[in-house]
Amino acid sequence: MLARRSEHATKWLLSAWRDLSLDAKVIGGLGAANSALLIANHTTVQATTDATLWRLFPGIGGPLFLVACFALSLLYPLRDRRSGSEFTARQRVIHLAAIVAVMVVLPTIASIVLRETGRPYTYVHDGVIIIEEASRKLLAGHNPYAADYLDTPLYYWPMVNNPALYHVTYFPLLFLITTPFVWLFDHARLFWDERYLYLPAYVATLAVIPPLVRGKPQRLALVAAVALNPELFPFVVEGRNDFFVLLFLFSGIALLQRDRRTLGALAVSAAAALKLHAFFLLPFVLVYLVARDRPRSVRELAAGVIRTWWPSAIFLAAIFLPFLINDFGAFYDDVVRYNAGGAAWSYPISGIGFSALLLAVGAIPNPQADFPFAAIEIAVATPLAAWWLVRLWRDPTIPVMLTGYALTLLAFLFFGRYFQGNYLGYILAVATPVAFLRPPAARRPITRAERRHASVLGPAR
User: Fold this and answer.
1) CA-to-CA distance for 399 and 392, rounded, in angstroms?
2) Any idea what the Cα angle at residue 409 is, between residues 404 and 410, rounded to 5°?
3) Nearest CA to 210 among 198, 219, 201, 197?
4) HEC letters along 95-160
5) What is the pTM of this model?
6) Angle in degrees, CA 172, 177, 182, rounded to 5
7) Exposure check for the chain: N or C terminus, fewer CB within 10 A?
8) What is the mean pLDDT of residues 373-396?
9) Residues in contact with 44: Cβ distance below 8 Å, sequence separation at least 6, in sequence order
10) Cα→Cα distances 204→26, 128, 208, 243, 245, Å
């Protein structure tokens, strides 16, 4: 009897799941999964160590936060199934916004408040402190790549022998954008937190990506998949810069999709001037644009490239050249040796990649040891990139471009000295639109769920 009831319950659940709209499946599934992970897995930097997100809220606030996340996540597919046409497109957007606000925005604000009312090296990732203090070094007339950070709050951040005290691993645009804000807040005697930029960038990214795909269910599903990426959104809380980069990157993709080539290339170049991750997209964008033009001569090729890329070239030169000319060795040591190994204080082997596997099996004696990861990265990523660039030349489409970029970046980062969880989250975010940009398949019978939701959400635009 129990087995039969279990069988009936399973069949009912499967039937109910099939009847849900695409957005309800994605939002309900991701929301419920993340809500469960919030209990013990989704963590953030707190006072002296990492702790679960819900512990940011004192007393009964933590359990109420978990209940709200579960309730809002499960209510979306329930409303989709029960309300039918009464669950309008506008209501769906509002409901998704409420999930994002509670699950991501609220703990980020709580973390900012706890840092501001406590100590500046608590409730924050060290990358935030590095950029804030690099901006102050620049305002004081120092080269951020040549300076050390022993006289900053980073010294007290909870990591023993933190190599970031001697290195700025990020590209210059990140602290150049921050510098005016730091100057203004410091002169006004106000507390500056880099998440004042990063949190709006997270929200703005979610506003930029819907036009990439057609159909309201697809747009809602895409936004949810990026916003609730379990390997990315927890890092928004502590202040990692992935969504700040993704805002420029997705803006560039949206512009390229509408054939706004010069502006699209400039936006992607801005992303590349923020972080090495985005730099790998530049050759794919170049091949994508040239392949669409199919120039008939070298002269025609050069004219097209110059016409599209001259603003980007000037922009990148203005960002990088001052630091390369001032002290190339310091820049190279911070950006290359620090990440690849070979610096006096290199980043320790860590994360979930190939390096962690070698460390676990004893092939590498300790996390500080040097190892030729750069050679392995190049050996694996270069042929993979070449293969995808050739495929992109033959089929110059946004899905092929994003797929090639995501896989190349995965190969390069996975075999690097460290491969962090947010690296995987960033790659998944970049690859997410591909699933919604596939060309339509051959005609098939329309399901009952599709007929029901077509009247709710309206035709695709």
Assistant:
1) 9
2) 100
3) 219
4) HHHHHHHHHHHHHHHHHHHHHHHCCCCCCCCHHHHHHHHHHHHHHCCCCCCCCCCCCCHHHHCCCC
5) 0.91
6) 115
7) N
8) 95
9) 50, 51, 53, 56, 107, 111, 123, 234, 235, 237, 238
10) 21, 19, 6, 9, 11
The CB density around residue 320, as the number of other CB atoms within 10 Å, is 15
How long a stretch of residues is the chain? 461
Token digits of residue 419 = 């491969």
Q: State the distance between the two ends of the chain, measured CA to CA, in whole angstroms.
A: 50
4-33: pLDDT as tens digits: 655 555 665 666 668 788 999 999 999 999
Q: Tell me 334's DSSP state.
A: I
From the list 393, 14, 334, 332, the residue with the least C-alpha distance to 149 is 334
CA angle 301–303–306, rounded 5-degree value: 105
Q: Phi-psi category of 458—alpha, beta or left, where left has phi over 0 and alpha has psi -120 to 50?
A: left
User: Residue type at 295?
Assistant: P
d(CA 257, CA 417): 35
How many other C-beta atoms can be found within 10 angstroms of the C-beta atom of residue 229?
23
d(CA 126, CA 180): 20
> What is the DSSP code (8-state) at residue 44?
E
What gap in Å lies between CA 425 and CA 359, rounded to an integer?
23
Q: Are 126 and 134 in contact (CB under 8 A)?
A: no
Residue that the structure tokens 């706890």 belong to: 114
pLDDT for 326 beyond 90: yes
Contacts 24+ apart (CB under 8 A), 372-380: 373/340, 373/341, 373/415, 373/416, 373/417, 374/340, 374/341, 374/416, 376/415, 377/411, 377/412, 377/413, 377/415, 377/416, 380/411, 380/412, 380/415
